[in-house]
Amino acid sequence: VERFEWQRRWASDLASHGWAGPAWPREWGGMGLPLSDQVAYHEEMAHARLPGHPSSSVNIIGPTLIRHGTDEQRRRFLTPMLAADEIWCQGFSEPDAGSDLPSLTTRATRADDIYILTGHKVWTTNAMRADWMFALVRTGDQQARERGLTYLLVDMHAPGVEVRRLRDITGGYHFGEVFLTDVAVPATRRVGDEGDGWRIARTSLGLERSTAFVGNTIRYQRIMGELCDLAVTTGRSRDPILRQRLARLETMARLGAINGSRTVEHALRHGEVGPTSSVTRLLHSLLEQEIHEVAMDVIGAAGMLGRQDPGAVQGGRWVWGFLQTRASTIGAGTSEIQRNTIAEQVLGLPHEPATQKGAG
Ligand SMILES: Cc1cc2nc3c(=O)[nH]c(=O)nc-3n(C[C@H](O)[C@H](O)[C@H](O)COP(=O)(O)OP(=O)(O)OC[C@H]3O[C@@H](n4cnc5c(N)ncnc54)[C@H](O)[C@@H]3O)c2cc1C
């Protein structure tokens, strides 16, 4: 909670000085920087070890509204979003719809100038703190799959919205479930046309996705250095197997950095991010998992001690990271789905055969 509030104040400070949203147009409170300067911005922020926005889904909903929202929506939402005066969450996944999102069943029924919303979202990061949720909901037939989806902005304080927090493997509460019972959403809160939600969700992310890797690259370089120091201080650095594993991790980190540059290059040339961003995402999620697996091996039995335990190594940070990064290959698209994307869109391999549900 403390860290969240600190991040919130930091976001507010940045916004009040005009130093937030490097990719956002100036008229909406951003900096309007060209892509190459955005890269420099993220590098400097990462070198200074400064945190990101308290609600990372802002990087999704912000560009979505800039590109597809109405003027009224942009005026109403963008400035408080950037300054973290209002917190947002993403309501896409449901208990029976994650990778296969087009099968989602949360229903929005139109009645005059409102939609009545009923359904159940899950794994919603920051749901407990959010003021607003951007959600994909079903307005068309179930059989229409992605063609029957609409993009709505839902007031999390409206009657009929109930949030239950979910405990994760670290013992913390970072996400929750959202139950929606006859929630009234004004039609003016629809983004784009009815039935066009899938296209909007897929095309909304904008070029800044290509610069998102920069901060991570610098962060991994730092953590790799800390992991090597750990191997030295625990007397494990002469172990040839461990040295091989460290070399493999360093190679992955450098490949991630090189591929990230390739994505920026693609964005600069073609004006869109391109599918190689899936390679960077996959590499980064595997890398952060493996770094912590190696750290746990280096520490040995003491690696099981958490923050509160006397004798915990470096305040239990490695075990916390080990547990926390279990989710890295699931959230925002599993690594299997990333591999499918790479196979089909980067390598040009045939599409996977349709599953019973229809793989979309
Ligand atoms: C930390 C975290 C934060 C999250 N935050 C949010 C959030 O804020 N908002 C939100 O909407 N969702 C969020 N999610 C949910 C996340 O998007 C889903 O968990 C993810 O899309 C996978 O869906 P699922 O859990 O239903 O698994 P499933 O889709 O049921 O997948 C189960 C397994 O089957 C595999 N699989 C499925 N389909 C295929 C296929 N076609 N080919 C090969 N393998 C396949 C998967 O890779 C996985 O291993 C979050 C998840 C995590 C872990």
Fraction of helical residues: 40-55%
As residue ranges, the low-confidence spans are: 356-360
Give Rg in angstroms. Answer: 21 Å
How does the major sheet shape up? 4 strands, mixed
Alpha-beta content class? alpha+beta
Mean pLDDT: 92
Give the N-terminus to C-terminus distance in angstroms.
39 Å
Notes on the protein architecture:
- The protein has 360 residues and is an alpha+beta fold.
- Helices cover 42% and strands 15% of the residues.
- The protein has ten helices and eight strands.
- It has helices spanning 2-16, 35-47, 58-68, 71-82, 197-203, 213-233, 240-270, 277-299, 317-324, 335-346, and strands at residues 88-91, 107-111, 114-125, 132-138, 149-155, 161-166, 175-186, 190-191.
- The strands form two sheets. Strands 1-4-5-8 form a four-stranded mixed sheet.
- Strand 6 (161-166) and strand 7 (175-186) form a beta hairpin.
- The longest helix is centred in the last third of the chain and has 31 residues, at 240-270.
- It starts with a helix and ends in a 14-residue tail after the last helix.
- The relative contact order is 0.10.
- Residues 356-360 have low confidence and may be disordered.
- Residues 89-93, 98-99, 123-125, 175, 327, 330-334, 336-337, 340, 352, 359 line the site of flavin-adenine dinucleotide (FAD).
Tags for this entry?
alpha+beta; 4-stranded antiparallel sheet; 42% helix; globular; disordered C terminus; binds flavin-adenine dinucleotide
In short, what is this structure?
The chain is an alpha+beta fold and about 350 residues long. The protein is built from ten helices and eight strands. Flavin-adenine dinucleotide binds near residues 89, 92, 337 and 359.
